[in-house]
Amino acid sequence: MSWSVTEAELVRRAAAVVRETGVEHSLQTVSSADHEVLRRVQAEAAGSLARLQAAHEALLAPSLEPVQGVVLGLKRFAKRVVRKLVGWYVEPRSAAQREFNAEAIRCANLAMETTRQLSDHLLSTEYATDVIRWFKPQFAVELAALREQSAEQADLSRRLLTRVNASGVEIERLADQLPALYERVGVHSAGPVGFDYAAFEARFRGDRATITANQRHYAAQFGPPDASGIVADIGCGRGEMVEILIAVGHDAVGIDSDADMIAQCEGLELPVVRANGLTWLDEQEPGSLKGVFCAQMVEHLVVSELERFVEAALRALRPGGILIVETINPRSLFALANHFFADVTHVRPVHPETLRFICEQAGFRETLLEERSLHPMMLRHGLDSTEQTGAAGDDVINLIRTVFGFQDYALKAIK
């Protein structure tokens, strides 16, 4: 069977479809018209494949017409003679024809499979296009809403930024006015001082040896040194009390917010923490401390801070724990004039009965008051006891005690 022009053209077109659709075309750009072309090519390729297979079978097994008798024998003999004579020429071409036909069939099969896959992909693409076309209006609505929200958010952000900037300016203005406000209401100590406060205390309160001598007797108030628990010195200053407590066997720690004071304590290798004393107490576990001590510190606090300090100490102390507060005695006019008002960081004096009341209201079960640091004038006149009277009369003695009375007091509160 000879290879027809129509069939050769069909194979060429199928190969072209494979090449073009596999390399040069994108599935996303295939149109409905292209789909029809692919279907037509697929149908033609199917017809060509059938014809090629028939021709291939004919070449491999040629059919002979049935003949009878002597004629059959002669025909067979003649064919054998002719085959031998022309076989050297015909057989190579016949083998080449069969090989060509087989390759053509494989090519047609490839074209059929390719068109089938393209058709499947085309259907998928059309389905996706329909889905996108269906959702597109909804997407447009959502996109418009998002754009509107984005514009609103941007406008809100701009307005908030403007307000924040304005607030920053206002805060700076208030910060500039705050020191003057503190001065006006009498709590200017809330602002930091510019001078060396450690040097100030050394001059107006006393040197280290003097403070150590005055505070040494407090150590025994916290019970046996070998009892477990920590005694915290709030506002420890130069660390005199911390050093005393450690020397007698207590576990102790000092808390102060002044960097110079902390540096002096660290120079003596004392256990200290630089922190706000009220904040530090608030952070302690309830019932974790054996004792809390503070000397000449509560006069630096406003009333709300004083109440917070007492409540925080009560919470941090274990049952039976001790709070000892030492401060300037406002019942001594000499102490007020010469000690309280000399320190510009003092806020207000704390009356001993006021402090006792605050401790009792907070929940301490017992309070004990001790007045200390008797003025030398009282000793010279033998007025070191409240039961004594002098020749000048009770009124004069009371006046002297009011002016030159005990300069400090200590309140001991027991949980």
UniProtKB/TrEMBL annotation:
Pfam families: Methyltransf_23. The keyword Transferase applies. The keyword NADP does not apply. Keywords: Transferase. Transmembrane segments: none annotated. GO terms for molecular function: transferase activity. InterPro entries: SAM-dependent_MTases_sf (IPR029063). This is Unannotated protein.
